[in-house]
């Protein structure tokens, strides 16, 4: 009976967590097809008459097409740089023996504690000097740098537990270090790569502070910054804002659903030694 009670309690708790998790999306979706008057009258209820035209108006008014393209370019490029650079940095730390490798590992992972606000002004001055302000490269390079510490740690954790015999066999077959990394380690690291893509893709897609500071030209902003057009000094167009938020959230949901099998495996990769 104790086991049954525990099982029932666990299921109820999971259902509660599920409801709490999906409620914000329901609230956003329901209000995206209402008028502002209906939102204020009943913010939690279903719309009396769905106004799907909100999506078309929001898309045109905020020029979301350009913003989507900018966010997709910034996110795709940054995630690619993070995966490639993180794997190249983690390989020698995990597979090679040299003086100071523990220090370098600690130095890389220490980046996890660096606050974005601390480096905002120095980065602004640096990009201004390099002529990269109002360029997507300013956001791409910054997000790549902040994504590397966690990525290096995840790859390092996985690479160190790959059997040494596998590398020795590859060496006998003529594989160099880069060949072994490219042909053997990276294909084995698909769960880690999937987790990195989800984590860093979500972070870069939703990143606001750096994009707001570095991208100021019309037509060159990413999606989170472009959503500001629905705010004014005296009012906010909530219906159009909710519609735009739904459209901005969908790519992230699709990304997670397409790579969810790799997500948990990547988080636990290297946690248990064989």
TrEMBL record:
Primary localization: membrane
SUPFAM superfamilies referenced in this protein's UniProt entry, alphabetically: MetI-like (SSF161098)
Organism whose genome encodes this protein: Bauldia litoralis
Localization, UniProt: Cell membrane
Residues passing through the membrane, by range: 12-29, 67-91, 103-124, 136-159, 180-203, 238-257
Protein name in UniProt: Raffinose/stachyose/melibiose transport system permease protein
Swiss-Prot/TrEMBL keywords: Cell membrane, Membrane, Transmembrane, Transmembrane helix, Transport
Residues forming coiled coils: none
A biological process term (GO) from this entry: transmembrane transport
Cellular component terms per the entry's GO annotation: plasma membrane
ABC transmembrane type-1 domain sequence ranges: 68-259
Family named by the database record: Belongs to the binding-protein-dependent transport system permease family.
Topology versus the membrane: Multi-pass membrane protein
Top-level taxonomic group: Bacteria
């Amino acid at each position: 009976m104790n086991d049954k009670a525990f099982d029932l309690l666990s299921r109820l708790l999971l259902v509660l967590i599920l409801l709490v998790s999906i409620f914000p999306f329901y609230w956003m979706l329901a209000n995206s097809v209402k008028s502002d008057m209906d939102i204020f009258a009943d913010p939690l209820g279903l719309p009396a008459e769905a106004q799907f035209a909100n999506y078309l108006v929001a898309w045109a008014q905020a020029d979301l097409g350009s913003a989507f393209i900018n966010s997709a370019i910034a996110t795709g490029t940054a995630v690619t740089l993070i995966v490639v650079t993180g794997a190249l940095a983690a390989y020698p730390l995990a597979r090679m023996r040299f003086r100071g490798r523990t220090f370098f590992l600690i130095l890389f992972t220490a980046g996890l504690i660096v606050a974005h606000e601390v480096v905002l002004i120095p980065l602004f001055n640096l990009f201004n000097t390099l002529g990269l302000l109002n360029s997507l490269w300013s956001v791409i390079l910054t997000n790549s740098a902040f994504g590397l510490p966690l990525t290096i740690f995840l790859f390092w954790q996985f690479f160190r537990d790959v059997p040494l015999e596998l590398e020795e066999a590859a060496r006998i077959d003529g594989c160099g270090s880069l060949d072994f990394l490219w042909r053997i380690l990276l294909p084995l690291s698909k769960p880690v790569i999937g987790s990195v893509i989800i984590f860093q893709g979500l972070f870069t897609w939703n990143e606001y502070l750096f994009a707001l500071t570095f991208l100021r030209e019309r037509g060159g902003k990413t999606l989170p910054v472009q959503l500001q057009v629905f705010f004014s000094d005296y009012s906010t167009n909530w219906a159009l804002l909710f519609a735009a938020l739904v459209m901005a959230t969908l790519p992230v949901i699709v990304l997670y659903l397409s790579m969810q099998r790799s997500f948990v495996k990547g988080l636990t990769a290297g946690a248990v030694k064989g």
